[in-house]
Write a structure and sequence with these properties.
This protein is of the alpha/beta class. It has 22 helices and 17 strands. The longest helix has 21 residues, at 405-425.
């Protein structure tokens, strides 16, 4: 058998993928779709880690008439040997290596303050000037242009100059190549997301708007532009006046299969590494996205899991994608959710669907103004998928669902973290006092109040409630908390043993009801179980003076507590 291609993790440079013979899922027909679309400026929005950066790197490699610093032309045609685009015809191949290209990523602008983010953007622009410094050779530029080019390249200009830096670079490249320029802007919304969560949104939006206006709206040297990001942020007029801009979101049919992996592509990759029998598992964990009605897998997670399987065939699926960022949007939703949003989250986590109005041109400011806009954010950033959609009075209504097990895991993890933090922040002293005094009614009111303000899920309900109570009781000073520790003729759910023998021992047995009408009976059953299995055996003999026994029953977000003191 021929040696298998290596699997690259995190490689976003197309040339490196080819040079190092990494496994590459051929997405070169994006070139054909882009040229066929006829868009002057195209915005492609997809969730993070869905191949946007690699796609732009591929476009640059194909279109660019690349020139070395000494003015020598570089032939990149061999990078497409055997690729699908070579079968598309001369109408597309005639563009190979024929255009000057400006390629800029704003990823580095994800910073904690405006000054650092702004500086990183300027640095990215400066590096692009350095990459194209061959334009200073020959006589295509005037002396004044040379001086301005050199000043921008070496960052010796005032802040007002930077907003037109891309337009000026376009002009210089057009003069040198005698062809208009293609501009590739990657992750354009990263500075805006970071600025929103860090508190400098207003400053950043003003700069990004001015930069884009000069590069994409009033730039006579522009041939074509491709922009990528997670969201279409048009409400703040980032793309002011760009009436000719084509937008392809996850709802669009155009470019639907150009990002992420189709089922055929995933099965081909699994077959290449003799992992065909893992197809169902990969599907359950990482499939489920619908882009323009076409089923798509998360490429980042698929690649990571297949690589893991090549090292250990018994490896379990893991949430690779959900661990690649801070997930600020999910956290924001969970922590600020009202009762309606909590109920809807519970529906989603249970595997059901909800219907919501979807707005493609949302803004980060909308997150403050409208709870409903958050569902649009979750959809376009990959945390939800569209099952079906309908149009009513010019509004898109989509039935939404969690795409797969990986994203469901993310929701559960963040909900548990949020819930645990809520418990730690609550004043538990009244609850502890009632617990130690046998006030079961007050205990039940407190627990019910906690559950009512939380988001719950019920894949394994008793375990959920058990874990919740353990977390609630772990802060009780002077007590050891044991869970399912053998005592008497069984294992009480929770046993609280004091370090001071004069304080009461607490035994809690938990039950979970399907109906509210069952709660009284199940509480009685829990107390009867404590007695029949003699969980208190030996505790009085050890010298403890008091034992309080609780039967606790949960039904959804309600709690009933009954006690028997001896």
């Amino acid at each position: 058998m021929a040696q298998r291609q290596r699997i690259a993790i995190g490689t976003e440079n197309y040339k490196e993928m080819v040079d190092k013979d990494y496994y590459y899922v051929d997405k070169t027909l994006l070139i054909k779709e882009l040229l066929d679309s006829g868009g002057k400026v195209t915005l492609l929005t997809r969730p993070r880690r869905f191949g946007k950066t690699l796609a732009l790197s591929m476009l640059r490699t194909f279109f660019e008439e690349e020139i070395s610093p000494d003015g020598t032309r570089i032939d990149n045609s061999y990078y497409f040997s055997g690729c699908k685009i070579l079968q598309a015809g001369e109408a597309y191949l005639c563009h190979m290596g024929r255009h000057p290209v400006i390629s800029l990523t704003l990823k580095s602008a994800k910073q904690a303050d405006f000054e650092t983010a702004y500086d990183n953007i300027l640095d990215a622009i400066s590096r692009e000037y350095i990459r194209h410094r061959y334009v200073l050779l020959g006589d295509s530029l005037t002396e004044m242009q040379r001086q301005q080019y050199d000043d921008i390249m070496n960052r010796r200009v005032e802040s007002s100059v930077w907003t037109r830096a891309l337009a000026f670079l376009s002009q210089c490249l057009e003069q040198y190549h005698n062809r208009r320029v293609m501009i590739l802007l990657d992750e354009y919304d990263v500075p805006l997301e970071s600025a929103y969560f860090r508190g400098f949104y207003g400053k950043m939006i003003l700069f990004i708007r001015a930069l884009f206006e000069s590069a994409l709206k009033t730039n006579d040297s522009l041939e074509l532009a491709v922009i990528t990001g997670c969201l279409r942020i048009s409400g703040e007029s980032v793309f002011t006046g760009l009436n000719h801009m084509k937008i392809a979101s996850v709802l669009s049919r155009e470019f639907a299969s150009c990002f992420g992996f189709t089922e055929a592509e995933v099965r081909a990759m699994l077959h290449a590494y003799e992992l065909d029998e893992k197809a169902e598992e990969v599907c359950r964990w990482y499939d489920g996205y619908l882009f323009g009605g076409i089923g798509v897998y998360n490429p980042w997670s698929v690649i990571n899991y297949i690589k893991e399987l090549t090292l250990d065939f018994q490896a379990f699926p893991r949430p690779y994608w959900s661990n690649t960022s801070s997930n600020d949007i999910v956290r924001n939703l969970v922590e600020s959710a009202d009762n309606q949003a909590k109920s809807e989250l519970e529906e989603l986590i249970a595997g059901r669907t909800i219907e919501k109005s979807i707005y493609e041109d949302v803004t980060y400011e909308d997150m403050r103004r409208s709870r409903d806009s958050l569902w649009s954010f979750l959809l376009f950033t990959g945390y939800l998928k569209v099952v079906s959609q309908r149009m009513e009075a010019d509004v898109i209504y989509a039935r939404l669902k969690i795409p797969n097990e990986e994203i469901r895991y993310l929701y559960k993890t963040h909900i548990r973290e949020w819930f645990d933090r809520k418990i730690r922040q609550a004043d538990l002293r009244p609850f502890y006092e009632n617990l130690l005094e046998g006030n079961s009614e007050e205990m039940a009111l407190f627990i019910t109040g906690q559950l009512s303000s939380s988001i719950s899920y019920y894949d394994n309900a008793e375990n959920f409630y058990h874990g919740y109570l353990i977390g609630l009781l772990s802060g009780l000073e002077g007590y050891r908390v044991d869970s399912n520790k053998e005592h008497g003729y069984g294992r009480p759910d929770i046993l609280l043993t004091p370090f001071d023998y004069k304080r009461p021992v607490i035994i809690l047995e938990l039950k979970c009801a399907q109906k509210f009408s069952q709660m009284e009976e199940l509480c009685a059953n829990a107390l009867a179980q404590i007695e029949s299995r003699d969980y208190a055996s030996g505790l009085l003999d050890e010298g403890y003076l008091q034992i309080i026994k609780y039967g606790v029953c949960f039904c959804r977000k309600s709690c009933l507590v009954k006690t028997w003191e001896k």
